[in-house]
Structure formats: C-alpha cells, structure tokens
C-alpha cells in the first residue's frame, strides 16, 4: 500500500502535538533536554521538538549516553550527532566509562539481563547531566508500545511503586530531579519506523545485542501478536491504564543517596548498590 508521505507526517506531528498541549508538557522559556540515543524514537522526538521550539518558545539541547556496547552504541551516537548537526541543536555526550569507570560490556553475565544495570546507570547519568545543564524537562522517546510494555513489566514484577512513572508527564518529585516528558506517548512504534524511512532520516535501526535477554522483549512480542490479531488493542490498554491509575507522585518519598548525593527514594541508591557489587567483581 502506498503511503501519502505528507499526510502521514502531519498525522505523526499532530499526535505528538496533541499530547504536548493536552498534558501541558512544556511551558514557555523552559530548557528541554532530549535523551537522544540515535534510535528512531528519540530522533523523532528531537525533530518534533526542534520544529516546535520557536512557536512554543522553549530552548532545546540533546544528551547522548554511550553505555559501552561494542558494535552497537557508536552507530547510535553517530546518528545523534548527524541529526543534531542538521537541526542546529547542541549535543552533550556522556559515557558509562567516563562517569562510572566501566562499560556495559564489562558487566556481561553479572545480571539476569544487562538491561537491569543499563537502565539504572543511564537514568542516573541522564538526570545528572540534564540537571547540570539547568533543564526544566527531560524529553524521552518513549512511545505507546514502550509505555504499555513498561506497565506490564511492573505489573508482572509486582513493582507497584513504579506506577508513578507512567503517563506523559512526570511530577517534579525532587529539586535535583528533572521531570520527564514523553511527547510520543500515544504514537505507535511501527509509525515511528515508517516516519524515519519515509523521510530518509539518519537513524540507528539495529537492536541492542542485549535486548533479547530482557523481559521487555518477551512482552513486546506478545503485545505485537495481540495487536496483529486485534488491531487497536495497544491503544485500548493505554486508555485503560490511564483511567485506572492516577499518574501522580503520591507515595513516593525522595531524598538523596547517602553515598553519591543523587536523588533517591532509598538511603543508598540503586546505582551505588550496584557499583559496590561491580567493584567487587571487576575492579
Ligand atoms: Fe541497555 Fe537493554 Fe537498551 Fe541494550 S536493550 S541499551 S542493554 S536497556
């Protein structure tokens, strides 16, 4: 089936704009940081926000994190650089090696899935850099598929405390924590891929070699099967979650980690706890 490129692009932009307006994701004069991996979702987020920054009067900077995955991450970082260059957006780069002293590859086999330490350290570093830059919001490329997958993962692991992390806009729960926003909250992952191909955008399409070990990839396969048999299932699930749960900070008490001083809901944050295990094993 031939796709009308202009109509498709307009639909994608209108979908993100609807989320930005409906949930008031960005206020005038704010500095928004885009978490830019170089993958299709974060690149689309960058393009949409770059397009809107004049009209909505906010500033934009991108941040890329190199986790240290050989044969994978460098291409993503390169795509991030190319897109920032073409849009005239400043890119700040950080890496696990520089910040924590190891690459993700060094941790291979230490955890059930490499995604576990990857998520913990990346979230912390993204927030740290965004806060240092003075960001008011941290925009991520989370799409509709990601959101439902994350929700089901938390449900499967009985991590009810994580429910506050769902929704298109997170509350500011600590002065040093930059609230996250998700402009692609209602955008299907499949459509993001089509957008990148249709518009010839420089995007890193490869899958991370560690992704197959994650619970997310299993849930993703299941949801895709469901959607194929019953189109509209994913959107219905998102609507059900939104109605069933209030996306507020509620019971989350944030303080700072007693070791590193970064925001944490625990006395010692997950990153410091993992660092201790890692130091025992690899240093
Ligand atoms: Fe990190 Fe897992 Fe994503 Fe790979 S798939 S970049 S290990 S979170």
UniProtKB/TrEMBL annotation:
GO terms for biological process: tRNA wobble position uridine thiolation. GO terms for cellular component: cytosolic tRNA wobble base thiouridylase complex. Residues 32-164 form the tRNA(Ile)-lysidine/2-thiocytidine synthase N-terminal domain. It comes from the Archaea. ATP binds at residues 35-37, 41, 65, 141, 146. InterPro entries: Ncs6/Tuc1/Ctu1, Rossmann-like_a/b/a_fold, TilS/TtcA_N, tRNA_thiolation_TtcA_Ctu1. It holds the Pfam family ATP_bind_3. GO terms for molecular function: ATP binding; transferase activity; tRNA binding. Keywords: ATP-binding, Nucleotide-binding, Transferase. PANTHER family: ATPASES OF THE PP SUPERFAMILY-RELATED (PTHR11807), CYTOPLASMIC TRNA 2-THIOLATION PROTEIN 1 (PTHR11807:SF12). This is tRNA(Ile)-lysidine/2-thiocytidine synthase N-terminal domain-containing protein. It comes from Methanobacterium lacus (strain AL-21). The lineage of its organism: Archaea, Methanobacteriati, Methanobacteriota, Methanomada group, Methanobacteria.
């Amino acid at each position: 089936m031939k796709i009308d490129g202009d109509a498709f692009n307009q639909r994608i932009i209108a979908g993100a704009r609807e989320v930005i307006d409906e949930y008031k994701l960005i206020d005038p004069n704010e500095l928004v940081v885009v978490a830019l991996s170089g993958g299709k979702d974060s690149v689309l987020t960058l393009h949409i926000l770059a397009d809107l920054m004049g009209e909505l009067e906010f500033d934009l900077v991108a941040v890329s994190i190199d986790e240290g995955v050989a044969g994978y991450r460098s291409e993503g970082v390169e795509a991030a650089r190319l897109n920032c260059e073409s849009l005239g957006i400043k890119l700040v780069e950080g890496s696990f090696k520089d910040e924590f002293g190891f690459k993700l590859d060094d941790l291979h086999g230490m955890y059930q899935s490499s995604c576990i330490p990857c998520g913990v350290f990346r979230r912390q570093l993204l927030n740290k850099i965004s806060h240092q830059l003075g960001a008011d919001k941290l925009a991520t490329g989370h799409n509709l598929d990601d959101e439902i997958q994350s929700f089901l993962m938390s449900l499967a692991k009985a991590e009810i405390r994580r429910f506050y992390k769902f929704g298109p806009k997170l509350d500011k729960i600590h002065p040093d924590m930059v609230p996250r926003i998700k402009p692609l909250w209602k955008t299907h992952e499949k459509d993001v891929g089509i957008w990148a191909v249709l518009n010839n955008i420089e995007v890193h399409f490869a899958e991370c070699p560690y992704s197959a070990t994650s619970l997310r990839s299993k849930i993703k396969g299941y949801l895709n099967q469901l959607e194929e048999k019953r189109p509209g299932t994913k959107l219905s699930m998102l609507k059900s979650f939104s109605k069933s749960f209030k996306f507020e900070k509620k019971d989350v008490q944030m303080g700072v980690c007693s070791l590193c001083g970064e925001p944490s809901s625990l006395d010692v944050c997950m990153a410091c706890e993992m660092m201790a295990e890692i130091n025992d094993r690899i240093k």
